[in-house]
Every structure is written in structure tokens, then in C-alpha cells.
Design goal:
The structure is a homodimer. Chain A is an alpha/beta fold. The first copy, chain A, has 10 helices and 13 strands. The longest helix of chain A is centred in the last third of the chain and has 25 residues, at 233-257. The A-B interface holds A 130-131, 143, 145, 147-148, 152-162, 164-166, 168, 176-178, 248, 251-253, 255-260, 285-291, 294 and B 130-131, 143, 145, 147-148, 152-162, 164-166, 168, 176-178, 248, 251-253, 255-260, 286-291, 294.
């Protein structure tokens, strides 16, 4: 009983990994999710993936105590239900029970970003810190707070929606129904959109040349980073502006949560200092010095593995905690 | 051992109260703090006040298990030290130890606003709610979050400084060193200041008549509320603007903390619907509907007693919790 299995069930891929008691990821396997084929198809596939993972690792199922899985969207971790996950097209799916039925193991689920941040907090960039604010910059902007080693959920497990703080500088409409949400600009999508809109309005940029006749819709945040490195004034302006906005949003989060450390992950973290330098400058100006002085800022260390290790460790923690006995028995 | 003593040590008065196990305040006594005479003088007075409280209540000291005290400013509740309290002129004062030495009882201290919010959460307007955001509008603007019944402290016990979130609409310099902090406008002081500055610039107001030759410096937030009731356009504008700013600040707090309920207390809460109606309207527009739909907003019920009951109950909780054995023995 010394192993846990961690999973990241994403819109594109499912990744399963075998994790030991120290949080070390020993083996992992990945398959396309194919969520368009329905949730039963995905769960059957997950059942087979876990068998395969055990065979490849040379581990008996009896040596595995628990499965933890991160899924996107709104989750009820107590009931083990994925309430709504847009990019899986899942509504009210009993994820924990379904995986438990196919594996014979207790299963805990949680939001994928929380599990990513939990992994970084336990075994990655925030190892040893008690108060961890983790953010992921990807298609959107998500965040999760760990306070005294405990995940902070709030009412309805809805805390930490940094991406939906409003910014007067932003005029984009958001999928949530509001206008001006931070993630409409501070995200991979948002960075590309800012550049694209200026280019549509006739702004010169080296990125015009790279499109080679393709539509401006093809532009990505990675293109903007590349243009930044080539000294393209538009790309520099967009990443500076995005970093400034992120710094302002984080200032509110730091003032309310008082973290020791901010860990920045997700695909957007690949922009690195192009984004983080202006973010840091703005954040320093926008918080009381007592917060800034005690704050560490780091990029994530574990990349894609953070969610797998985090969900495996969180599941192990929940299994052993009598206070939160929420695992699903087959 | 069925009683606790709760205290509120403020810049103006010290209040001590006897609280039973159900959180009912049975007796209280109040004296001026006279902090200018030094902390030893204040602690000697507190020792005598507690003797007097017991005599008046007809209770033996052996029936009291613990003392809890709220003090303003930055507190280390684990070490029992008031790190810095500007309006008491205290720096690094060993408050818990000093009171314990004079009373022979274990003493726990905490920030006065946290204790006020804890009192309202346990026995006041937020009774029965798990995720409580409490704010006090007074000389400044302070907040505290209770999550799953647990006070949220963050790194350095510094979480919840809602008053120091920056607002682009605000241009006042704050005592903390920044410019544009929410509390420079959303506070009793801030409300009076907004009205005063416009009157200094020649803006007409019924409040000019009320001053009767006194300087505009004499203007208070209560005057602005009174002028609002008289239909004074300046007062209406100031309270609408202040409510709107509070709504924007609370929107960030709701999005990050996800409370079930917001409790609004402090002297500024006396402005009531004059302030809360525009606050509510702005908040509804500025948060994702999933937060708004689950949110209750109430004014505090216990007024000045919340801090006394809260500190007594928190001290009782800490005394009985093996996880946080932090009380000071004489």
C-alpha cells in the first residue's frame, strides 16, 4: 500500500501516473481523451490505462491505496462529482464513482488547477512554504491558494477565480457573462488577441510576415514571445501591458490572501521574464511593502507532472484523514 | 470553568466582559484606556478591571478558564505579542504575558477586527454560515475571513487587508505609503474627507450651514449621512461613490475568497442603506453570477459586543485545541 495513482483528465489528453509515498512520479502513460465519445468511453479507457500502468510498473493493484484525479471546471470534491467541465462536455458526472467502479480502488477528484498547485506546493517550486498562491496561465487564468498546507476552497469550492477579477483597463467580454475579466487579456488567448486586434487595425509588426498569408486568427501567444525576442515594438507593448495587468490582479490577491510565495505555471509561464518582469514591477508598486518584503515569486518546476503528483498526494492525504472521509468505495 | 473573559483594548476604551459557554455576554465594564500613560499602566488597570468584573458578576476566578483580548494593529497570536498598534503607541508589547501575569489566567490575543468578525460569525449576523467575510468600516477599512469555521491568517497573520486594495478612482495618499488605497475613501475618515474637499472647492452643501463657523475639519461621516437624509446632492454623491468603491473592492474579495455571507460592521455601517444600496448594485455587476447567487449580505448585529464575545470564544477554542496550544501561563 505504498503507492498512489494520480491522473490529469484534460480536454485533450488523459495522463495517469504511479506516485510513491515521497511524491516521486515513477511511471506515467498518456492517451487522447476523446471526450466526444462520451464519458463512459473515457472511463472505460481510464480503467484500461490503469491496468496498463500497473503492468508497466511491475506493481500489484494491492500495493496501490488510492487514485486521485484532477478534472477541469467546477468540481464537488466531497461528492466526487464533476459539476461542469466545458472542454470535456461533462455536466454532473460522477467521476469518482465511475473510476472507482472500473478499478476497485477508492477515488478522490478535484479541480485540475488546485491539484497542479498542490503538487507544486508539496513537491515543486513551493516545497517548504506554508502559504502558497499558485496560478496557471493557459487558455484562461486560474489560481488556487494553500493556507497552512490546506487547500482553500471557499463556498461552493469556488474560491480563487483570479481570472474573473475585473480590470478597468480591459474591455473584452468574457465567457462568464462579465466584461473586463482579467483572463480575457492575461492568458495565452488574451495575449494573442491583444496583438491580433492591433494588427487588424493596421499596426505594423514582424508577425505579419510570419503569417505567410494565413489568417490573423492563427496567431498564438508563442508568436508574440518570439516577436518580443526579435524586438518587435507591438509584441513588447503587449507583453508589458499583460504583465502590468497580471501584477495589478496579483496585488489584490496578495493583499487578501497574504501568501509566502507565488508559483506561476501553465503554458503562459513559458513567456518567462518577458511577462514576469513587468508583472513584478507592477506588483511591487501595488502592495503594502510588508507583503512584498516577505514574498517569493517562482515559476513552476514540475510542468505537466504537477497535477499528477498533486492529485495522487491529495488523494493519499484524504484517505488517511478521518476528517474528510470522502472516498468512493466500489 | 464555564466562563471566559473577552476584552477589547482600543485606542479610546478598554472593555472587559464575562461570557458563558454559549457565547452570551453576561456582564461588562468599560474604562478609558489612557494609553499615553504607558502599557504597564494599562495592564495594571486591566488587572483591576477583571477583579471588578468578577466581583460584580458574583463569579469566582476558578470558574473562569481563559481570557481572550483583541487589540488593534499587527498581532502575533501564537506568541501573544502586539507587534505594532499605532493608536495604542505599542510596539512589540507582550500583551498576553502581561495580562496573564496580572490575572493568573491563560491569555490569548488577536487582532480586534478578527475577533469582531469571529464574534459575529459565531453568535451574530453570520451564525450558521461556514464561509464568512466580515468587514468593519471605521477610521479605516478592515476585513477578516473565516473559512470552514477557521480564521484565515495568511503569512505573517496579514491576510484580509481589504482597505489596502488599490482603486484607480482614488487619488488619496494612504498612511501605508501607497496612493489609492480603498480605505482612504471607504471609511468614516474618507467619507468626511470627500465631502470636505468638495466644499473647500466651493461646492454648495447644506453642511456649510451646520458648521456654524467651525472649520471644515470638524465635518464627520455622520454629518454626511444626515445631509443625505436632507437630500443634499453632495452628500448623496459622496455616499453613492463610496458605496460603488466598496462594491468594487468587495467584488475582488468575493471572487478570491468565495464567502457565503458578508457581514458589515463598524461605525460606518451606521450609514446603512445610504452606503449599502450602491455597494450592492456595484457588487452584483462586478462578480460572476455564481458568486452573487449564493451570497448573503447583512449588517453586524452585536455592535460593540462582537469583539468581546469573539475574543472570549476564540480563546476558549484555542485553550481546548491541542493543535494550537499557545496560551501563556503565569
Amino acid at each position: 500500500m505504498n503507492y498512489s495513482i494520480g491522473m490529469d483528465i484534460g480536454g485533450t489528453n488523459v495522463v495517469c501516473g504511479l506516485v510513491n509515498a515521497d511524491g516521486k512520479l515513477l511511471h506515467k502513460i498518456k492517451q487522447p481523451t476523446e471526450s466526444s465519445k462520451g464519458s463512459s468511453y473515457v472511463f472505460d479507457k481510464i480503467g484500461r490505462m490503469i491496468e496498463e500502468l500497473l503492468v508497466k510498473s511491475g506493481i500489484e493493484k494491492s500495493q496501490v491505496s488510492v487514485i486521485g484525479a484532477g478534472t477541469p471546471g467546477f468540481i464537488d470534491p466531497i461528492k466526487g462529482i464533476t459539476l461542469f467541465a466545458g472542454n470535456l462536455r461533462w455536466t454532473q458526472v460522477h467521476t469518482a464513482e465511475e473510476i472507482s467502479r472500473r478499478t476497485g480502488l477508492p477515488v478522490y477528484i478535484d479541480n485540475d488547477v488546485r491539484m497542479y498547485v498542490y503538487g507544486e506546493a508539496l513537491c515543486g517550486a513551493a516545497r517548504g512554504y506554508e502559504h502558497v498562491l499558485g496560478i496557471t496561465i493557459g487558455t484562461g487564468l486560474a489560481a488556487s491558494m494553500i493556507n497552512n498546507g490546506q487547500l482553500y476552497y471557499g463556498s461552493g469550492y469556488m474560491a480563487g477565480e483570479l481570472g474573473h477579477i475585473l480590470m478597468p483597463e480591459i474591455t473584452y467580454r468574457c465567457g462568464c457573462g462579465m466584461t473586463g475579466c482579467l483572463e480575457t487579456a492575461v492568458s495565452g488567448t488574451g495575449i494573442a488577441r491583444q496583438a491580433r486586434e492591433q494588427m487588424e487595425n493596421g499596426r505594423a509588426s514582424i508577425m505579419h510576415d510570419w503569417l505567410n498569408g494565413r489568417s490573423l486568427e492563427a496567431l498564438t501567444a508563442a508568436d508574440v514571445s518570439k516577436a518580443f525576442d526579435a524586438g518587435d515594438p507591438l509584441a513588447v507593448e503587449v507583453l508589458n501591458h499583460t504583465g502590468m495587468l497580471l501584477g495589478k490582479g496579483l496585488a489584490s490577491a496578495v493583499t487578501l490572501y497574504s501568501p509566502d510565495i507565488i508559483v506561476i505555471g501553465g503554458g503562459g509561464a513559458l513567456a518567462g521574464e518577458r511577462l514576469l518582469a513587468p508583472m513584478r514591477e507592477q506588483l511591487k508598486q501595488s502592495v503594502y511593502s510588508g507583503y512584498w518584503d516577505r514574498l517569493t515569486i517562482r515559476t513552476a518546476e514540475m510542468l505537466d507532472d504537477a497535477g499528477i503528483v498533486g492529485s495522487a498526494m491529495a488523494a493519499g492525504e484524504r484517505l488517511s484523514s478521518t476528517g474528510t472521509q470522502i472516498h468512493q468505495q466500489p
